[in-house]
Design a protein that fits this description.
Length: about 210
């Protein structure tokens, strides 16, 4: 089984790579623009000295840009490969069905949690455990989005989307990130991450309740 992947950590790592480069590029662009405005502002009708070009500088500039782009692409695809990796032995499997405008979570043993835009459901999961999700839609395209985990996956009709997530004990709220109709903004769910032992107790209680209702 591969190591647990913290999607939030991976996102923050990628942001720490992009942000300094973005700041540096912005500083260079604004600095050169300000320099050109001040240095070459019009003082009289005489044209400034003309220059055909600097081939060596232009080549170095193009190579630098290509190197930066290649580096960012490598970092991005490497991070995405880690986030998309599927465990060979997940600790829990949960089926997720999105519909206008709610969610259904199916657990092993016939346990289901359903909610809509009026009464949002709660996704209960164990902490520090690889949770395998199988996501699909019952009607239109939706999107399973947990901002606190920096994670989002689309839900399609008649097509399953599989992914793994690991949860900490932090509170989180999930949302639909794909406009899906009038109540799209209220299509949410709460995330309740419990220690493994507490989660097992919760699941056993839900199973007993489901059996009593049959």
């Amino acid at each position: 089984m591969p190591a647990l992947i913290d999607t939030r950590h991976e996102y923050d790592h990628l942001l720490s790579v992009y942000l300094p480069i973005g700041i540096a590029v912005a500083a260079i662009v604004f600095g050169l623009t300000l320099f050109a405005v001040v240095r070459y502002r019009r003082r009289d009708d005489e044209l400034p000295r003309q220059r055909e070009g600097l081939p060596l500088v232009e080549v170095l500039y193009a190579l630098t840009l290509a190197g930066v782009v290649a580096f960012l692409l490598t970092q991005t695809f490497s991070t995405e490969d880690k986030v998309d990796a599927i465990s060979s032995d997940p600790g829990l499997e949960v089926g997720v069905t999105a519909f206008q405008w709610g969610w259904r979570f199916d657990y092993p043993g016939g346990v289901s949690v359903v909610g809509d835009d009026v009464e949002p459901p709660t996704l209960t999961v164990p902490t520090d455990t690889t949770v395998r999700f199988t996501l699909e839609s019952r009607d239109v395209i939706h999107s399973f989005w947990i901002p606190e985990l920096r994670f989002k996956r689309d839900a399609f009709p008649e097509r399953a989307n599989t992914f793994d997530l690991v949860f900490s004990g932090d509170e989180a709220v999930g949302r639909c990130a794909e406009f899906c109709g009038l109540a799209h903004g209220e299509m949410t769910f709460d995330v309740n991450a419990l220690p493994a032992a507490e989660f097992d107790d919760w699941l056993q209680t839900q199973r007993r309740t489901a059996e009593e209702q049959r």
